[in-house]
Amino acid sequence: MMSRLLIGRCLSALATALIPTTLTLAVLRATDDGGALGVVLASELVPMLLLLPVGGVLADRLRPERVALFADLARGLSQAAIAVELLLGLYRLVDLALLSALAEAAIAFGSPAVPRLVVAVVPGPARLRVNARIGVVTSLSSVAAPAIAGTVTVVAGPGWAAGLTAVLFAGSALTLGGMRTSIARRAEGHHGAEKAAGAQSAEAGVAVQGVENGPGVRRAEEGVEVRSAEASVVGQGTENGAGVRRAEEDVVVQGPEDGVGVRGVEIEVAGRRVESPGLERAVEERGTFSAFGRDLRRGWREIRQRPWFLACVFGHGVWHFVAGLFLTLAPVTVVQDLGGETNWMVIVQSGTVGMVLGVFAAPRLPIRRPLAVMQVGAAAYLLPMAALAVPGPVAVLAVAYFAAMFGLGVLIPLWETVVAEEIPERALGRVRSFDTLISFASRPFGLAVAAPLAGLTGVTALALVGGVLVAAANLMAITWSATPSTRTAATPAGVGRAALSRWARPATAHIRRASMRGQNEDGERSHAPS
């Protein structure tokens, strides 16, 4: 199963990396207008940014292998349509823009589902290793894809390059077809249990170890009726009054983060989730739009409860912004003042080698503080920015960029693994869509403002400010007051929930705090970042 996952991610990563070069060369064959190229490339980015929150919600509602499958199929079909049009000699910019927008919209749905897919397929101790391998594949694809797309386009034409991309997406979809994940097995188990219950489920209580629900939650034929708005935790003496609203509106007992709660079709007790299929129909009766908004709010609530995550995402967003500055300013400086295009290619390849080595090293290093290692790795982008600001030999800039990208390579699998362990699986898609949105939005912004800012301040000043900014934003996350203790055993397998055990607070503390809170206007529990 893990082999199929890795093969599928390899094919999908390579196909995704082929698209920009193929599309750029196709547009340039159609017109020499740089503005037209900008419009087509923007048509890729905008739909993805707009649809990422929607994709996050769907990734949490649906089985991740199905979401990833349909995303790959949609991208494959869009690339096949582009291939047919280009092979027929029809270089219509509007068609290219629309089909590219379709492909990027599919990425918005498929990307948030991948972390859940890894969680559903890979056992916890092996996730860091698998995430590292996926990172290596993605890194190598980003390096090889432009050369592959360029070669195929020069030899056979952009239509054949688009056709190759479509075939790769189809191959990725084949690896996902029929994949049995832990989520699929749980769903089949619940379906079998419901069929076995049959007519005997006209009235059912919700029994959870350690929880007493007064007269209980009774399931009637037409839905779920909440007979008691009081729940108590045995041994704690904490009562949650007014925490249960009618199930037709929303089935919640103090919210999923308060130690005791019914969220959708789940009951959560002290961090342990117990499925309750009997509540599903009442939840499904809610309108789609209101349910979507509720899911978005809950996803944001999961983020707000974790200041360390917000601090890290902010730091990573600054990293992408500063990377946009560097990738605009550095090539111009190197080509004009430091020896030309060949030297710039040496710098780029040194960064690629550094990132690949970092990804390989991450699961093998004796990391005791994963959060600190991640943020220091991101802060290392200070080095190439400083080398750019202070004129020096090309070798210095190449070594600095190598170090920065090595830090990124270490960060990628650690971040994927820690987030997958610490974010509840039911909210992982929404949380990761927020993370992806910040990253994808900040990089183009840096690319866009680099030249105007350099014209105002000069390259030296802008590079120094950018370097200090990326270092400060990422190192600040390490000292965040609510940051988890990231001390682990000095083994790769130690990175995970055990690594953050001191960070996880007991559910009873959440319950006591929640009992003193009110509800806001829309009935959702209001939570300040803790």
TrEMBL record:
UniProt xrefs under Pfam families: MFS_1
Main location: membrane
InterPro entries with a match to the protein in the record: MFS (IPR011701), MFS_trans_sf (IPR036259)
Residues annotated as transmembrane: 36-58, 134-154, 160-179, 308-332, 344-362
Compartments where found: Cell membrane
Molecular function GO terms recorded: transmembrane transporter activity
Gene3D superfamilies documented for this protein: MFS general substrate transporter like domains
Superkingdom: Bacteria
Record membrane topology: Multi-pass membrane protein
Protein's recorded name: MFS transporter
Organism listed in the record: Nonomuraea fuscirosea
